């Protein structure tokens, strides 16, 4: 097991080099430069432009800039934002809890709805229930996130007035930033209605962000369950005379979960990339919104650093998924 | 009262009759061999006794009783109490019949817990006893093994331990040795027969292996295309087969073709869903078929304990009656 983890970790290094190269190249390929954007409509004199460029290190050749950037990363320094002059890491850490909170709630929604839906569809294969679950999940999967968000907002926030339109909590509350997680902070604050407000702000973004993972999980669970249900050992379990629910939940689900866990792990990528759109539409102050804004400002260090951190998270989660896989599946555990 | 009694049992999948009106009886402590080629309905008929035929399969019978209890009229829950305890089954491929995610101990104890209950310690003790009974060395350490750590023969022993866990009165063995090595086959059969004698179980042995049936079964049923074509005491059926199909099965054994370049074989294949012939189902392949064989389905002939489904049963010389 230890050897297995070590081997997986050694594969991470080339991935990192690839990511730094890719983000660096792509962001510098976008036309426009940060100084012009900062200056705005009024423009900036050529002398001032050159001065600022030299100050920010943007006058050096690209390979030198890249080298400087990589050396910084190796020392754990992601650089400073060109706009706010704050270290990228600090900005990230302030905003990250909001995204994590949203992603966790979306994942919970996706699993709580997707897993049972997939199981039911498989057990009731070929019935109306099965077809409706599969049609709904295909619809959910194909839905453009921003459009789905606007649609839900229109129905539930604007027309019905059930949920707030945007933000993390009503402006009337002033919540101390203890953990960065609004649900916990608002609970701790003890202010009346604060927690409820935080929850109601989370509902729509979580559903929007969780829709695609939910659809993927439902479809994967269904096909995996169908495969497992036709296995010989399911017949053996039934021949023992154990209750049907036990056959499904204990004997079938445990086996069916193996591929589903992998898929859930892969959805972390979808959640983080989906967060960019969801956060923008719902004005959710997380890293998705932060990245989008930094791209439009040509804030090179923020874009590079932000993407690198997000990529790291995805890599780590995938590694954890591989380990979880070994825990669920004895065949893998023993082969290592 | 017979242990198991079927009368006109049919299993249909849509329009297809996988099992077509079969009837047989099994007494307590009796070994019944069911032989026939693949797709002749041997396994499906046994699965229907276990109550394991799923939608869209349909089971119907005039009578389906176990020790006098009507299995068809029984509520689902009550029937599950019988399955796995009084009626148990072992399957063809032991390597895929054990759940790969659970240890051997868990799977045996689960069977015990479902039907008998008891303390954790007692259950574990009983599981160890069972593994000893089926001849698994170092049973205590084997309890924590996972199926992928066992060989095929070991897995089948575990399957047998699981099946006999609740002291069944009827054990159905569906080609228990087909997936195993030849050297292991004999051991598994010896074990099954030994357990059957010790526990006085009724045993239904489904197999392709005619020699095996001849050796261990009291009575034998020959199936073809979902029907029973011949039944009777094993020794008699094999010495003087009355049905042309049984005769052909025996002739196809390598032992019967010694000195010949090719093995004997019936031309053609078992009829499927769309090419079921009129009259006798064997008629297109039967060397003795006459005009009426192609038109009229034969009835079962002969006394109850020695039946044959043929218009012109063979005589003791192996020739069709006039």
From TrEMBL, chain A:
Listed GO MF terms: dipeptide transmembrane transporter activity
UniProt domain ABC transmembrane type-1: residue ranges: 96-321
Gene Ontology CC terms: plasma membrane
Swiss-Prot/TrEMBL keywords: Cell membrane, Membrane, Transmembrane, Transmembrane helix, Transport
InterPro entries (alphabetical): BPD_transp_1_N, MetI-like, MetI-like_sf
Membrane-spanning parts: 12-30, 95-123, 144-163, 198-218, 256-287, 307-328
Localization per record: Cell membrane
Membrane topology: Multi-pass membrane protein
Family statement drawn from the similarity comment of this UniProt entry: Belongs to the binding-protein-dependent transport system permease family. OppBC subfamily.
UniProt-recorded name of the protein: Dipeptide transport system permease protein
Species whose genome carries this gene: Marinomonas pollencensis
TrEMBL record, chain B:
Keyword Transport attributed: yes
Compartments, record wording: Cell inner membrane
Leading EC class: translocase
Transmembrane segments: none
Record's keyword terms, sorted: ATP-binding, Cell membrane, Membrane, Nucleotide-binding, Transport
Region (Disordered): 297-322
GO biological process, one term: transmembrane transport
Biased composition (Basic and acidic residues): 306-322
Pfam families per the UniProt record, alphabetical: ABC_tran, oligo_HPY
Catalytic activity: a dipeptide(out) + ATP + H2O = a dipeptide(in) + ADP + phosphate + H(+)
Documented EC number(s): 7.4.2.9
Keyword ATP-binding: yes
Any one GO CC term of the record: plasma membrane
Membrane topology: Peripheral membrane protein
InterPro entries tied to this protein: AAA+_ATPase (IPR003593), ABC_Ni/Peptide_Import (IPR050388), ABC_transporter-like_ATP-bd (IPR003439), ABC_transporter-like_CS (IPR017871), Oligopep_ABC_C (IPR013563), P-loop_NTPase (IPR027417)
Family annotation (SMART domains): AAA (SM00382)
GO MF annotation: an example: ATP binding
Record-linked PANTHER family: DIPEPTIDE TRANSPORT ATP-BINDING PROTEIN DPPD (PTHR43297:SF2), OLIGOPEPTIDE TRANSPORT ATP-BINDING PROTEIN APPD (PTHR43297)
Membership in a protein family: Belongs to the ABC transporter superfamily.
Protein name (Swiss-Prot/TrEMBL): ABC-type dipeptide transporter
Top-level taxonomy: Bacteria, Pseudomonadati, Pseudomonadota, Gammaproteobacteria, Oceanospirillales
């Amino acid at each position: 097991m230890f050897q297995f983890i070590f081997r997986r970790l050694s594969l991470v290094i080339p991935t990192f080099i690839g990511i730094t190269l890719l983000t660096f190249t792509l962001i510098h390929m976008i036309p426009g430069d940060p100084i012009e954007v900062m200056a705005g409509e009024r423009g900036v004199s050529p002398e001032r432009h050159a001065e600022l460029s030299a100050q920010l290190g943007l006058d050096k050749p690209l390979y030198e800039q890249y080298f400087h950037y990589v050396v910084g990363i190796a020392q754990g320094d992601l650089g400073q934002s060109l706009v706010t002059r704050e270290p990228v890491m600090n900005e990230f850490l302030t905003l990250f809890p909001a995204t994590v909170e949203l992603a966790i709630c979306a994942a919970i929604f996706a699993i709580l709805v997707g897993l049972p839906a997939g199981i039911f569809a498989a057990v009731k294969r070929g019935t109306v229930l099965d077809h409706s679950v599969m049609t709904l999940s295909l619809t959910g999967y194909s839905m453009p996130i921003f459009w789905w968000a606007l649609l839900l907002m229109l129905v539930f926030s604007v027309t019905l007035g059930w949920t707030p339109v945007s933000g993390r909590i009503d402006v009337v509350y002033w919540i101390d930033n203890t953990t960065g997680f609004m649900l916990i902070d608002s609970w701790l604050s003890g202010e009346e209605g604060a927690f409820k407000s935080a929850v109601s702000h989370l509902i729509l973004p979580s559903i929007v962000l969780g829709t695609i993972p939910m659809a993927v999980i439902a479809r994967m669970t269904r096909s995996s369950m169908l495969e497992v249900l036709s296995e010989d050992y399911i017949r053996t379990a039934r021949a023992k005379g154990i209750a049907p629910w036990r056959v499904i939940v204990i004997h079938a689900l445990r086996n069916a979960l193996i591929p589903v866990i992998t898929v859930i792990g892969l959805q972390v990528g979808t959640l983080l990339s989906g967060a960019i759109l969801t956060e923008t539409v719902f004005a959710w102050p997380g890293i998705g919104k932060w990245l989008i804004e930094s791209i439009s400002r040509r804030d090179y260090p923020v874009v590079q650093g932000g993407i690198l951190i997000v990529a790291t998270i995805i890599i780590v989660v995938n590694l954890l998924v591989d380990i979880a896989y070994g825990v669920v599946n004895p065949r893998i555990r023993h082969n290592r | 009262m017979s242990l198991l009694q079927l009368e006109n049992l049919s299993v249909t999948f849509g329009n297809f009759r996988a099992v077509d009106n079969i009837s047989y009886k099994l007494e307590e402590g009796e070994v019944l061999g069911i032989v026939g080629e693949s797709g002749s309905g041997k396994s499906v008929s046994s699965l229907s006794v276990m109550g394991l035929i799923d939608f869209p399969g349909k089971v119907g019978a005039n009578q389906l009783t176990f020790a006098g209890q009507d299995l068809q009229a029984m509520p689902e829950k009550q029937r599950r109490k019988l399955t796995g305890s009084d009626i148990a089954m072992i399957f063809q491929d032991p390597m895929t019949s054990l759940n790969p995610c659970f240890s051997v101990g868990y799977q045996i104890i689960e069977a015990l817990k479902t039907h008998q209950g008891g303390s954790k310690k007692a259950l574990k003790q009983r599981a160890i006893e069972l593994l000893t009974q089926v001849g698994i060395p170092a049973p205590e350490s084997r309890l924590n093994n996972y199926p992928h750590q066992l060989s095929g023969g070991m897995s089948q022993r575990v399957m047998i331990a699981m099946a006999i866990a609740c002291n069944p009165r009827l054990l159905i063995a569906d080609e228990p040795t087909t997936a195993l090595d030849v050297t292991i086959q004999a051991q598994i059969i010896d074990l099954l027969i030994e357990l059957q004698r010790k526990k006085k179980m009724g045993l239904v042995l489904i197999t392709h292996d005619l020699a095996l049936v001849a050796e261990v079964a009291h009575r034998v049923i020959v199936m073809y295309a979902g029907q029973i074509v011949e039944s009777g005491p094993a020794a008699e059926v094999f010495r003087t087969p009355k049905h042309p199909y049984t005769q052909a099965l025996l002739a196809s054994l390598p032992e019967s073709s010694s000195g010949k370049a090719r093995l004997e074989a019936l031309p053609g294949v078992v009829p499927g869903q769309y090419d079921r012939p009129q009259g006798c189902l064997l008629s297109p392949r039967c060397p003795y078929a006459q005009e009426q064989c192609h038109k009229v389905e034969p009835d079962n002939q002969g006394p109850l304990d020695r039946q044959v489904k043929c218009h012109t049963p063979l005589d003791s010389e192996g020739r069709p009656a006039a």
